[in-house]
């Protein structure tokens, strides 16, 4: 090959950004009858790899809408969302499905487990979508469930599990394909105080141990203690951003 | 791009003349090799001599990249000397297009076309920056896939699940919803029972001549009964199927969050409804036909020379099954398609 090319100088990509999620002026409008509802009025934010972020705000402030935008679960009316520098509006359906399958794990307030499937079946479903064979996904699914403390509940259906256990299954499912980002929408919303605290600790542990970026929309003040940064949302816009260590709010000790 | 096409073909010509013979010696690659897995699309630039048309895009999977070229897996019958344009999506750079020439093609003996691997050399005028971006993508794909600790993975495309998997999943979800499945199947069965009974009783009573004199009015009435029974089947089946899919909108949204393709969701629901529709329609059509023959059976002794209109009965049986299948598919296709097209968030908040 007669080529006049300079050898590659840097093996490592030099321009790789430290930000994993970047939102630029994201807007979302819904039409409710004749009325236009502005759920998001231009939100810009940057989230670094490995951060634990809480998006806080009262009900109806646009938390969940922002969550859906970051997760590629809904189309913004304006602005752009970048995941690892890729504008997700540019992705075709195949790439979008790939993104949801392997890059992002989702946790919901209502757990959203498939009611007719056992814990193990729920956790292995995304692995099936990722093209794993039963030989690979069955042990992996069991291992992930063990990791969230449900090693003895593999074959229970969601109805046979408590709320906290169901949310653990949901967390295990979100981790199925080793995502870089876990998005949690009110993960403690349907749980009592103690269980909620356990779930928060679990998320924090995963964040620390596996380096997963965790972004959680919540109005649970227990989250404050573990978050690296908190975005306060009000009326569809970021009211303020707080960093850990600069906050004075105390809601009891959370053992880490 | 299109304006440059003629000169491009001329430029490729020398490459075509100098296709090297297959080489099995030691490594003689001029540049270091980076391994990665990157899905992209390719199109033929040279005039294809096969069944594949120029500009028809096909999937490629790149494995190794160096500054000089890359190893790629094809689904298409490439040959050494072909000019191929490759397109990849790389984080931070978006779509990259590179023009290449096929230098060697390797096929495992006895393998299908799908297992073709080929070495593609980048054209001399391929932008150096783009090639470097691909090399970086190799870093991304290594860093992300194994560690899962927030390393970037090159954006690839979600694969379609094989049909066998879809069938497995849909059978499983039918079995775990036994009651729901049976109830939906029963609705199909009764509707088709009624329809087939109405369709078949005409020929049977004509054969028995029990309707003394068949007047014009009674024939018109028979037709109306068939039409009404058809309407009952349409409304009953489509409504039931619609509801059974619609109550699973949240599930569809969740599945899409987990990485299911729209196509897969539709496929899943289609398979499910096809299975329960087939069972329901065949059972219903059979019951309806037997039901219609019943007067003939009870009066067989007194009318021993009356033959059954077998052909007409079978035709109507077939018609009943076909109507049942068509209605189940129609009834589930629309809501499944609608839900699959929605953004996941939208599907999950839709309350039925």
The biggest beta sheet of chain B, please? 6 strands, antiparallel, barrel
Unreliable residue stretches of chain A: 1-15
The CATH homologous superfamily of chain A is termed P-loop containing nucleotide triphosphate hydrolases
For the secondary structure, the number of strands of chain A is 10
**Number of distinct helices of chain A:** 6
What is the CATH C level class of chain A, in words? Alpha Beta
Q: State the domain count of chain A.
A: 1
> Globular, elongated, flat, extended or rod-shaped: what is the shape of chain B?
elongated
Output the structural class of chain B.
alpha+beta
Question: How would you describe this structure to a colleague?
Answer:
The complex is a heterodimer of chains A (256) and B (352). Helix content of chain A is 29%, strand content 27%. Chain A has 256 residues and is an alpha/beta fold. Chain A has one domain: Rossmann fold (3-Layer(aba) Sandwich), CATH 3.40.50. In chain A, the strands form 2 sheets. Chain A has a 6-stranded mixed sheet, sandwiched between helices. Chain A has a 4-stranded antiparallel sheet with strand order 2-1-4-5, with helices on one face. In chain A, a hairpin with a 2-residue loop joins strand 1 and strand 2. In chain A, helix 3 packs parallel to helix 5 and helix 5 packs parallel to helix 6. The N terminus of chain A is likely disordered. Chain B is an alpha+beta fold and 352 residues long. Chain B folds into 2 domains: 146 residues, Beta Barrel (Thrombin, subunit H), CATH 2.40.10; 187 residues, no CATH class. Chain B has a 6-stranded antiparallel β-barrel with strand order 1-2-3-6-5-4. Classes of the chains: A alpha/beta (256), B alpha+beta (352).
């Amino acid at each position: 090959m007669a080529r006049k090319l300079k050898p590659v100088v840097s093996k490592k990509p030099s321009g790789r950004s430290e930000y994993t999620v970047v939102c630029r002026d994201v807007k979302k409008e819904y039409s409710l009858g004749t009325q236009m509802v502005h759920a998001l009025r231009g939100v810009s934010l940057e989230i670094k790899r490995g951060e634990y972020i809480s998006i806080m705000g009262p009900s109806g402030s646009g938390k969940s809408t922002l969550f859906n935008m970051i997760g590629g679960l809904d189309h913004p009316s304006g602005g752009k969302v970048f995941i690892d520098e890729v504008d997700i509006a540019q992705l075709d359906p195949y790439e979008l499905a790939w993104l949801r399958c392997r890059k992002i794990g989702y946790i919901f307030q209502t757990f959203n487990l498939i009611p007719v499937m056992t814990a193990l079946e729920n956790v292995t479903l995304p692995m099936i979508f990722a093209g794993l064979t039963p030989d690979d996904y069955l042990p992996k699914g069991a291992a992930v469930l063990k990791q969230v403390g449900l090693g003895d509940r593999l074959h229970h259906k969601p109805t046979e599990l408590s709320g906290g256990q169901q949310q653990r299954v949901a967390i295990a499912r979100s981790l199925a394909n080793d995502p870089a980002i876990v998005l949690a929408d009110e993960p403690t919303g349907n749980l009592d105080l103690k269980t909620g605290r356990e779930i928060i600790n679990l998320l924090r542990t995963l964040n620390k141990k596996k380096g997963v970026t965790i972004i959680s929309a919540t109005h649970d003040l227990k989250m404050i203690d573990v978050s690296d940064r908190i975005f306060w949302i009000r009326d569809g816009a970021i009211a303020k951003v707080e960093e850990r260590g600069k906050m004075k709010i105390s809601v009891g000790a959370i053992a880490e | 791009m299109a304006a440059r096409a003629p000169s491009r073909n001329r430029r490729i010509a020398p490459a075509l003349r100098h296709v090297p013979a297959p080489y099995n010696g030691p490594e003689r690659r001029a540049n270091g090799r980076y391994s990665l897995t990157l899905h992209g699309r390719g199109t033929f630039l040279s005039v294809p001599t096969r069944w594949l048309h120029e500009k028809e895009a096909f999937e490629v999977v790149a494995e190794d990249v160096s500054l000089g070229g890359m190893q790629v897996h094809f689904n298409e019958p490439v040959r050494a000397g072909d000019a191929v344009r490759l397109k990849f999506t790389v984080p931070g750079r978006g779509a990259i297009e590179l023009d290449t020439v096929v230098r060697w093609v390797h096929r495992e003996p006895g393998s299908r076309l799908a297992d073709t691997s080929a070495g593609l050399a980048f054209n001399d005028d391929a932008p150096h920056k783009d090639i470097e971006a691909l090399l970086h993508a190799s870093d991304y794909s290594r860093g992300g896939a194994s560690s899962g600790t927030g390393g970037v993975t090159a954006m690839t495309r979600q694969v379609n699940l094989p049909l066998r998997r879809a069938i497995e999943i849909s059978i499983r979800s039918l079995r775990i919803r036994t009651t729901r499945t049976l109830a939906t199947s029963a609705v199909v069965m009764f509707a088709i029972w009624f329809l087939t009974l109405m369709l078949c009783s005409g020929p049977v009573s004509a054969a028995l001549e029990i309707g003394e004199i068949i007047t014009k009015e009674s024939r018109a009435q028979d037709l109306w009964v068939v039409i009404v029974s058809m309407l009952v089947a349409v409304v009953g089946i489509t409504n039931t199927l619609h509801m059974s899919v619609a109550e699973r909108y949240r599930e569809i949204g969740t599945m899409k969050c987990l990485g299911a393709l729209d196509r897969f969701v539709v496929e899943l629901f289609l398979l499910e409804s096809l299975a329960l529709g087939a069972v329901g329609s065949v059972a219903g059509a059979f019951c309806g036909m037997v039901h219609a023959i019943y007067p003939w059976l009870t009066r067989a002794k007194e009318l021993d020379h009356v033959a059954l209109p077998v052909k007409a009965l079978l035709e109507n049986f077939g018609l009943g099954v076909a109507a049942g299948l068509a209605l189940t598919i129609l009834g589930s296709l629309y809501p499944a398609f609608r839900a699959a097209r929605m953004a996941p968030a939208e599907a999950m908040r839709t309350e039925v």
